[in-house]
Every structure is written in C-alpha cells, then in structure tokens.
Amino acid sequence: DSVAGQLRSQGQKEAFSPLRIRQLPSGGDYQRCEESGTDLGQLLTRDKTIAAMKSLDGDLDKALGRLSGGLYVVTASQGEGDSLRRSAMVASWVSQASFTPPGITVAVAKDRAIEALMQVGDQFVLNILREENHQQLIRHFLKRFPPGADRFAGINVLEEEAEGGPVLGDALAYLGCRVEQRMEGPDHWVIYAVVEQGDVADANAMTAVHHRKVGNHY
What we know:
By secondary structure, the protein is α+β, with helices and mostly antiparallel strands. It contains four helices and eleven strands, in the order αααββββββαβββββ. A seven-stranded antiparallel sheet has the order 3-2-6-9-10-5-4. Strands 1-11 form a two-stranded antiparallel ribbon. The chain has a two-stranded antiparallel ribbon with strand order 7-8. Strand 2 (about 70-80) and strand 3 form a beta hairpin. It is globular.
C-alpha cells in the first residue's frame, strides 16, 4: 500500500488494485497485465511496423493482396471463477492443414493478447462467420479494448457449447481445437491445431470471405 500510495501521489494511474504480499492474483489481474504489456509492445513497435509495410515492392504487394480467405473469430478461455482468462481476435489467415487427424493452421500475430492462451496443449474455438451478418461481429472484435475488458460483453455467446472458448451464437459454424505445434515466423506464430469437435448452425449459409487489394496488412 505504501508503494501504491507513492505512485498515486506522483499522478500515476492504477491499472488495477494493488497486489499485496501473500495475495494470489486473479485471472483478471493476469489478463490485465498481459494485455497492458501487449498494448505497450504495439506502441513501441508501431513506427517500425509501418515502415516495414511501406517498404514492400508495389507489384509484390498487390500480388500478395490477391490471396483471399474466410473471416473468423478465434476465442480462447482458461480457468474459471476468479481465475478465468479469456480473449478473442478476428482472423483471416486460416487453412485446413491435415485430414487424419483433422487439423488447421491459424496465423496469430506476436503482439496479439490471445497468443498467450494458444500454447501447445491449449484449446481454442474457431468461429466461422456467415456472409450475411458478419459485419457487426467484425466491427465489435476489431475494437481496441482496454486491458482486462470483457471482449464478449453484449455479444450472443454459447458458453457451454465447446471446450476451449465461447462459441458465438451468430456464427455459421465452429471448430473446437487443441494446439499441437507452433512455428515461429518473423511477426506471426503459425499455430497447428487438431480439430476435436465442431458443428454447423445453418447448412445453407455461405462463409464470409475477405478480399484484399494489398498484402502488407490484413
């Protein structure tokens, strides 16, 4: 408390209540710390990232932009009660990677908060968005959330539908996955996961597709 008081007297803002000796941090405390670090990392590398994007050859940039993919929301959760940690992110770099066992790959940027919940052995859910109603979900999950904020507030979620993360009630389908391998790239982790469960909400609906014109950003 004395340390916290000194910081407050200097005008420092508290991200969360001070942790005391012999007090076990909650899942929310861990999540706020991780997401605060993620936000700081994005800020520190922003100029370098923008410069790298602008350095890509124009013709190559346009050619890469012709790669297209579906639109998805990856969700992950760990723990329960006070130890609960959960997160979500929009994804488009997703591909089936194996038949037996069924497997997929997901590219996750190294500065994404959800990456901490997608280590080998962790479970997550890939929500496949439908063409006719994906815009609202995309706008919601692309927002910048304060550290520790509930990313699912106001969203229709099916909490008990799958292990590993919330299923979005408006998704076309979902896949429940378990991380088997991680390959490190320059700015992304390529996550290979085995699909353990899944279901389709509407067999007649179409998957939302993401078309780009340039390849230096999503």
